[in-house]
Amino acid sequence: MSPSAPSSTGTGSSHLMPTYPVPAATFVRGLGSRLYDADGKAYLDFLGGLAVTSLGHSHPAVADAVSTQARTLLHVSNLYANAVAPDVARTIDRLLDAGEGRVFFCNSGAEANECAIKLARKWGRAPGLRYTVVSALNSFHGRTLATLHATGQPAKHAAFHPLPGGFRHVPYGDLAAMDAALDPSEVIAVLLEPLQGETGVNEAPTAYFAGVQDLCRERGILLIIDEVQTGFGRTGRWFGFQRFGLQPDVVTMAKALGNGFPVGACWARADIASAFVAGDHGTTFGGQPIAMAAAQAVLRVMEEEDVPALAERSGDRLRSGLLALPGVASVRGSGLLLAAELGSAVSTSVTMLALARGLVVNAVTPTAIRLAPSLLVTEAEIDEALAILAGALSDAATAGAPA
Length: 403
Ligand code: PLP
Fold this sequence. Notes:
Elements: E1 27-31, E2 34-37, E3 42-45, H1 48-51, H2 60-72, H3 85-96, E4 101-106, H4 109-123, E5 132-136, H5 145-150, H6 154-157, E6 167-170, H7 175-181, E7 187-192, H8 206-219, E8 222-226, E9 250-253, E10 264-269, H9 270-273, H10 289-305, H11 307-323, E11 330-334, E12 337-341, H12 347-356, E13 359-360, E14 362-365, E15 368-371, H13 379-400
Parallel strand pairs: 3-13, 5-6, 5-7, 7-8, 8-9
Antiparallel strand pairs: 1-2, 2-3, 4-10, 9-10, 11-12, 12-15, 14-15
Helix pairs in contact: 2-10, 3-10, 11-13, 12-13
Bound molecules: pyridoxal-5'-phosphate (PLP).
Pyridoxal-5'-phosphate binds near residues 113 and 142.
């Protein structure tokens, strides 16, 4: 293809690997809950970059922190300390409220889970060798080879065998199946999401999580909770596991921690974290001053605004508004991580129709759309999004109606 040939996607993406669906829009600017395309058309963003921009776009405190830090010190390597990371680790430890812990900083959710899996393996080396991690079917834990194997979606595995091994999957919410899978001579950890975000905002009963935690405690197995999508206020608590009164051993997080700046973290209780010694794990960029400045500003604003309370309140308004829309059969999820079940395979067309009307949502399953707006979303923005969605659902019903 000549340099000036039109792109295969029609969006100027011809030199990018074709790992994502053809994009339906190109955004050039964002402010609060709004995104703008190159023509200046505004869109209400009710997806938040897949639950990432929890303080909205271009939040001034985050933008100032990143630009100030960029003019002060971007990077020093992990051979030296920096002034910001310990403070961010301390804040995460306090918000988790799960016992004194230690934090490893990385750059993404998959890396946070890689760290958790490696830590569990190292922790499980004596006495005997245990390394199996049990996770749930329909889970999502990342795209690296180990986290892909942890991800309980066999269809996503098919093209990438051989996978690293050491993973077993059980149905989400099925305590008997978990019980049967937890052979303490082989299993070192259970890895679970408090809400399965990527595969449909699927819920499991509170009693399930308490039961899994009891099984883990009885059998000396670590409980790792993946809060990459649910963490930092999204579900109406600081962390999704807090809805179930759990005390996990390891917690992974990313997405909202940087409000768009790439930051991930793996927290472990201090006695477990001490299984790692210098040289066991590392990353060039994780925990560097620029990312830590972003996270520090994000956490400060989140605490000032009390984002869990906002997510709970706004989530109630969004949920009841969705339930009142013709075409919405049910709503699942917590806080501001919700899925509207449409009852038939129209979610892709509803998403496209909503985009045309200026609303960004996501077809999380063929029959459901996911909503994960900024936790600072206003009541007026929620009502506006509901009105746009009502129009898109009506358009879809008209398009699907027999002539
Ligand atoms: N874990 C969960 C629960 C996620 O939702 C995601 C991403 O959607 C990941 C892990 C992977 O995170 P990342 O894409 O930052 O590697």
